[in-house]
């Protein structure tokens, strides 16, 4: 699993700054958009692949009534999430095999997970642990469609590749992320899986010249 090579104790402490600067601060606006999509359905929320807890901190900022459970496969990232004191519970678990009961959550939200997962298992678990009427909100990077944006996108990743020679704790990510994103049409695959299992009101929306997307659906 490639995520195990990407995320570890060697880069956990610098993650928050890296995501902020390498996305030119767009990460915050994408996450705020996700929180806006929650429609007040915010009693029990699962932040899947919560990492260091950035997305959950935006949810907490917007609502003090919700309870958030965080889940991630990388223990070193979870330790940092714990410091935020945002969570009812944190679990070290896989998105494809969740340690939660059926019909538990009102919202399942994830940022930068879709491209790493086995989508059909992940969607099956979403369906199982989400309550009827619950919302799924999934965000990740995408490969832009227009030729101009593709040229700019590849140039940017060449710069990141060079940066990885200096910031060595991020070298593996900076030199492989572009290939991973380009090879993974997760948006359409996810929409197909969500539809096949029975989700309704499925929508997809692209951001920042097609370099990121958010998919939503209701159980
Ligand atoms: C780029 S970080 C994103 C963290 C956080 N969601 C955010 O937006 O800042 C990706 C996270 O996904 C986690 N991850 C990757 N594959 C996973 C899987 N199959 N199950 C659970 N977590 C996974 C990694 O451990 C890592 O913390």
Topology:
Blueprint: H1 2-6, H2 15-22, H3 26-36, E1 44-48, H4 54-62, E2 67-72, H5 75-83, E3 89-92, E4 105-111, H6 119-129, E5 130-141, H7 147-166, H8 171-182, H9 186-197, E6 200-207, E7 212-218
Parallel strand pairs: 1-2, 1-4, 2-3, 4-5
Antiparallel strand pairs: 5-7, 6-7
This protein binds S-adenosylmethionine.
S-adenosylmethionine binds next to α4.
How would you summarize this macromolecular structure in one to three sentences?
The chain has 219 residues and is α/β, with parallel strands linked by helices.
Describe this structure in words.
The chain is α/β, with parallel strands linked by helices and 219 residues long. It has 9 helices and 7 strands; from the N terminus they run αααβαβαββαβαααββ. A 7-stranded mixed sheet has the order 3-2-1-4-5-7-6, sandwiched between helices. The model has no long low-confidence stretch (mean pLDDT 95). The structure holds S-adenosylmethionine. S-adenosylmethionine binds next to helix 4.
Major β-sheet profile: 7 strands, mixed
End-to-end separation in angstroms reads: 29 Å
Query: Beta-strand level of the residues, as a percent range?
Result: 15-25%
Q: What is the helix fraction of residues, given as a range?
A: 40-55%
Count of DSSP strands: 7
**Could you give the order of the helices and strands?**
HHHEHEHEEHEHHHEE
Structural class: alpha/beta
Q: Which parts are unreliable, with pLDDT below 50 for 5 consecutive residues or more? A: none
Bound heterogens, unique: S-adenosylmethionine
Shape: globular
User: How large, in whole angstroms, is the Cα Rg?
Assistant: 17 Å
Counting DSSP H or I runs of 4 or more residues, the number of helices is: 9
Average pLDDT across residues? 95
**Strands across the major sheet, in which order?**
3-2-1-4-5-7-6
């Amino acid at each position: 699993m490639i995520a195990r090579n990407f995320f570890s104790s060697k880069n956990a402490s610098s993650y928050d700054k890296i995501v902020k600067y390498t996305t030119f601060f767009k990460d915050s606006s994408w996450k705020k958009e996700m929180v806006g999509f929650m429609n007040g359905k915010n009693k029990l929320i699962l932040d899947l692949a919560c990492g260091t807890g950035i997305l959950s901190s935006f949810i907490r900022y917007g609502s003090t009534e919700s309870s958030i459970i965080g889940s991630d496969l990388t223990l070193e990232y979870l330790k940092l999430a714990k410091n935020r004191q945002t969570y009812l519970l944190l679990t070290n678990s896989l998105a494809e095999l969740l340690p939660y009961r059926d019909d538990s959550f009102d919202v399942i939200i994830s940022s930068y997970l879709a491209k790493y997962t086995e989508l059909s298992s992940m969607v099956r678990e979403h369906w199982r642990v989400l309550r009827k009427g619950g919302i799924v909100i999934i965000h990740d990077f995408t490969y832009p469609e227009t030729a101009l944006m593709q040229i700019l996108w590849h140039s940017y990743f060449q710069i990141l590749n060079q940066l990885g020679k200096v910031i060595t704790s991020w070298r593996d990510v900076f030199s492989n992320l572009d290939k991973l994103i380009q090879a993974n049409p997760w948006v359409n695959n996810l929409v197909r899986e969500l539809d096949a299992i029975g989700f309704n009101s499925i929508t997809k929306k692209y951001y920042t010249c097609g370099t990121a997307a958010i998919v939503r659906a209701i159980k």
